[in-house]
User: Which sequence fits this backbone?
């Protein structure tokens, strides 16, 4: 078989014009509105800073308690409960998404009902329900394998884990379903036509492409979860907020400790946001012609080409 | 000459709409079989029935003597399981109008995917073979490109290489050049012509009458879910007998 010939185009269509025209030197448009807006915003910021400076705060309490052992343990617990709840949410979410999309009317309606319930009720209420489960089921009796007092089982940790995890699963199920359904049906047809089974199609073709749609909202979900975990205070779970409130009430530095908690939440969410950025980048493979630059690469590019910014180098590499 | 595809009174409905109203035809081994007709005539649907992407509602469809999608036992039909249908499809390559390349894989990975996953070919062996096939369709220099970095014609040629990687005994082409810029059509048709010269059995749904006339061994004209006219492409296209065929050809030629 002869390969079809690929013609080589001569580089450049029209010959370059002989004398380059004179470069344009024009007076740029003045944006006076921008100056006004900038002055107003800076003035407002100044007022805000002034108010904060006058506030009756023991500033020294913030660094004093920032690395307090109790606070650090609270931060650790916040991360632990968020990560574990997210894992439950992910695993159960995928199962629910598959159930929801199945042709079996029983499994799909059960998944629908689950999502309906857990998305339709506040997490706060769900946490309280789990925590107080012992009031209606004093004994946990899973017939042949396990039997114990409910109060021993439903510790603050368990209540927080179930409350957050089961709630998260409902949201993850919808995200996964949206992701899987976003993949063009032609992809499944192509893999089926090649003789791949439904399982292979899902694992090798659909899911890797669905990830691009699933990862960004999942990252958002996780960051939300980090913040929502502060609600676990209500079930006595010793996370950042609860620790901060304890110390604050005992030492009298209530607001200072709340600020410590605020700063820690900001740090943790920022760190995970950066992680999310790189995760998204990884799953963008093949969707665009060139991967977006990482912030570090951008800085480097700008440093080395400071005076002569090149036009965005896009296009095809060959 | 043996028969590769045999269709007996094939019917297919989507809901209440009957798209195929009894298709009878035979595709002989080694021939290029073209299906032409206006859009909505059911030609693409029929093609998709051949590898069971669509289930037929009545009639029988055989590929290489084997019933497609069902098993007949004691006068009753049993639906095949997912795995069995997949096994039947291995020997039937398909090329789609919209290419349907896997966008998260490079060209060579697209071609390797099915041999590695379905046939359990060792990766190194599959890669060697895939590179060879890409070379055969004139894309030796695009092995590591992602589909988004390729032109439509190049994508379609990768898609043909991907189908060939499974060593099919039959190739189905569903309007393979309809989504291409006019100047890219030629490169895809060239690959198909070369494939035909090598003796591949091909069923081609197409609007390229020139290709049908030049390369086709048989041709059917479909309209409204039935075969209106069939025969040698030169006869049917050059001297159509039915009014419907004449009016269609007068518009496309």
Assistant:
């Amino acid at each position: 078989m002869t390969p079809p010939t690929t013609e080589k185009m001569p580089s450049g269509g029209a010959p370059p014009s002989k004398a380059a025209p004179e470069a344009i030197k024009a007076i740029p448009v003045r944006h006076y509105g921008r100056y006004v807006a900038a002055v107003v915003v800076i003035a407002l910021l100044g007022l805000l800073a002034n108010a904060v400076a006058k506030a009756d705060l023991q500033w020294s309490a913030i660094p004093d308690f920032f690395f307090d052992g109790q606070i650090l343990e609270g931060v650790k617990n916040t991360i632990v409960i968020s990560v574990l709840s997210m894992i439950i949410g992910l695993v159960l979410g995928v199962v629910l998404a598959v159930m929801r999309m199945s042709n079996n009317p029983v499994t799909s309606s059960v998944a629908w009902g689950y999502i309906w319930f857990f998305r339709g009720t506040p997490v706060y209420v769900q946490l309280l329900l789990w925590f107080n489960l012992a009031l209606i089921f004093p004994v946990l009796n899973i017939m042949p394998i396990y039997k114990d007092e409910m109060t021993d089982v439903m510790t603050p940790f368990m209540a927080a884990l179930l409350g957050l995890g089961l709630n998260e699963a409902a949201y993850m199920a919808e995200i996964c379903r949206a992701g899987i359904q976003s993949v063009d049906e032609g992809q499944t047809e192509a893999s089926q036509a090649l003789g791949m089974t439904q399982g292979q199609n899902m694992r090798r073709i659909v899911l890797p492409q669905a990830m691009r749609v699933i990862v960004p909202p999942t990252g958002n979900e996780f960051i939300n979860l980090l913040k929502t975990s502060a609600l676990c205070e209500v079930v006595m779970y010793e996370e950042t907020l609860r620790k901060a409130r304890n110390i604050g009430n005992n030492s009298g530095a209530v607001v200072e400790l709340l600020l410590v908690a605020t700063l820690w939440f900001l740090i943790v969410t920022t760190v995970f946001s950066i992680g999310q950025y790189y995760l998204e980048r990884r799953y963008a493979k093949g969707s665009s012609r060139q991967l977006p630059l990482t912030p570090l690469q951008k800085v480097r590019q700008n440093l080395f080409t400071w005076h002569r910014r090149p036009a965005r180098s896009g296009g095809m590499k060959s | 000459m043996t028969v590769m595809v045999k269709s007996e009174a094939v019917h297919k409905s989507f809901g209440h709409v009957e798209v195929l109203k009894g298709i009878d035809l035979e595709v002989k081994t080694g021939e290029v079989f073209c299906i032409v007709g206006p859009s909505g005539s059911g030609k693409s649907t029929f093609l998709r029935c051949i590898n069971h992407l669509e289930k037929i509602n009545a009639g029988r469809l055989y590929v290489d003597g084997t019933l497609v999608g069902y098993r007949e036992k004691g006068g009753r039909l049993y639906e095949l399981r997912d795995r069995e249908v997949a096994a039947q499809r291995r020997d039937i390559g398909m090329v789609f109008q919209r290419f349907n390349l896997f966008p998260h894989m490079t060209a060579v990975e697209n071609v390797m995917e099915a041999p590695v996953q379905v046939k359990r070919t060792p990766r190194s062996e599959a890669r060697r073979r895939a590179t060879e096939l890409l070379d055969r369709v004139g894309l030796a220099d695009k092995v590591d490109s992602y589909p988004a970095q390729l032109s439509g014609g190049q994508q379609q040629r990768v898609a043909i290489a991907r189908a060939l990687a499974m060593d099919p005994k039959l190739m189905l082409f569903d309007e393979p050049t309809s989504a291409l810029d006019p100047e890219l059509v030629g490169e895809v048709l060239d690959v198909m012509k070369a494939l035909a010269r090598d003796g591949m059995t091909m069923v081609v749904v197409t609007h390229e009458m020139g290709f049908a006339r030049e390369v086709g061994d048989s041709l059917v004209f479909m309209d409204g879910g039935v075969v209106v006219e069939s025969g040698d492409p030169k006869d049917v296209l050059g001297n159509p007998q039915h009014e419907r065929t004449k009016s269609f050809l007068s518009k496309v030629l």
Observations:
- Chain B has nine helices and twelve strands.
- Chain B has a mean pLDDT of 95.
- Chain B touches chain A through 51 residues (CB under 8 Å).
- Residues 182-197 of chain B form the longest helix (16 residues).
